[in-house]
Every structure is written in C-alpha cells, then in structure tokens.
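Q: Here's a chain of 305 amino acids. Please give me its 3D structure as tokens.
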Amino acid sequence: MRLFSAVLACWCAIVSGTPAAAQHSSPETRIGEEGFESPPATLAQMDWLVGQWSGEGIGGAPATESLLPPAGGTMVGTFVQTKHGEDGAEAIMFTEHMYLMEENGSLVLRLKHFNADLTGWEEKDEMLTFRLVAIEPCAAYFNALTLRCADADRPGEGLVAAVRMKSEGPEVRELLFHFDPAHGSDKSVRCADALTTVDMNECFSETLTRADAKRVKYFDAAIERYADRGDLLEAIRESQTAFEAYRDTECGAVLQNWIDGSIRGAMTLGCRIDMTDQRTHRIWQNWLTSLDSSTPVLPEPQPTR
C-alpha cells in the first residue's frame, strides 16, 4: 500500500501542478501556462491511438494499454500494470480506467486508478483530469501527460506514453512507456502489409468508416455554422451530393480497371478513402476557416490512418 500511496501522490501532484519555478520543459511532457485554453481538437484526430498496446512498465514489468474506437464522443481505455510476485509469477499491480472525451470543442483525458482487488485510489466521485495543451499529427500533449506515435510517419507501429512526476527540485522527472502493437491487435497489421485479401479488405473498410465519420462531422459543422444562410446551405448540400456521385463514379471506374484482380476491393476502397479525406479537407478549408487569424471551427483534418 505504501507504493500505491507514493505513486498516487505523484499523480495528484500532476493535477494540482508544481510550483512555477519547477515547471521546466522536458523531452516528452508539456505543462500549460496558468489559465491556458485548450486548442480545438476532435477524436477523429486520435484514430491512431485505437488498439491494444503492450510493453515494459514500472520496474520493467509488463504493461498493457487498450483503447476502443470512439462512441458517443468518448474513447474508452484501460491501462494494466503488472508486477513480479515473490514466486516470479506476474500479478496485477494496479489498473486505470480512462475516458478520452470531446469537451468544449477540445479533448480532455479523465481516469481513475484501481488496486488489484478493484478498490479505488480516488474517492468515489473523484478522478484525475488532464486537459489538452497541444495536438499534432500523431501526438496529443495533455497537461503533464503525453500520448504520441513512436514514429509519426508510421502510425500504428509504436506508442509512447509519458507522465510528469512530482519533483522537489527544478529537475523534471517522468514515467516513460514504450509500447508495441499487442499480438492480435488490429494495429499490428497495417493495411498494405495484410497477409490475405480478406484482411486487407477488412482493414481498408474500417479505415473508410473512420474517414466517412470524420467527413460527416466536418460537414455537419459547416451546416451549423451557416444555419442562417439558406441559399448557401442549399449550395453546400448540393456540392455534397455532387461529391458523392463523383466519388461513386470515379471509384467505380477504378473497380472496373481492376475487375479481374484479387485486389480490386482494396483498390476501390483506397480510392474512396483518398477522395473522402480530400473532401473533408475541402469542407474545412472552404467553410470552417476564416481569412483572418481566428481559430478554425474545427482543427485541420489529417489523412485517415
């Protein structure tokens, strides 16, 4: 219990913040200035995080991080830290239950800790909250907690998690975790590296579902922004109908070109993913940004992975 209390004290220090003199930059974690505003962000920008990840945790013992696809504006996840028992067998040290949520146009990470017997560290109605400080392609920097791709150019092939710990002096101390895709996780097989046509088609289908969901989100935001412009709303809706017809025709031609090949499904789905991402970016550029330096209604959409 003493170990749990010490770790919990470190976590609590993260939420309450360290003295200003101790807030130095570090290779991984970032601290928001007092009263900082979180940047615009959506769960669509966090699709690279979905999956099951495993690696070495505290004391070199195995640790696992798992994130489910978003549902209702929330991505639910768990973290399991094991320990080596006296007999050498692995046992649960503690777990975390996480909610990565869309809130006030940005993202916030909330979590609670549990002992191996499911007794909680925090009080019944209490939780730790990490507000977003900055977001980049394949990286999210929450206040004192970072989640990012090990390689931004190869999402899905590695995950880095870091949390800033309490320090009595000016030095920055962090807990750093390096994860690989867990065996059997969807993230362990990239679409282009799938071993069978069925796996490849399934992977591309899931990617298209995420791309379409993102497009709908940005389109709905455009409709809401110009709700009082009836003539413009009609034109935007007509452009969407025209896009869908063009995408169907163009990708139908791609299918016809590969009709005798086993990869016809993957080629067609790839076409639809690319065109959908292009459409989402065009919606953002035309209807969700301004000519001045004001913040866009939604962040710039990134290619769907």
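Q: Can you summarize the key feature?
A: Strands lie at 51-56, 62-67, 74-84, 90-103, 106-115, 128-136, 139-142, 145-149, 159-165, 173-181.
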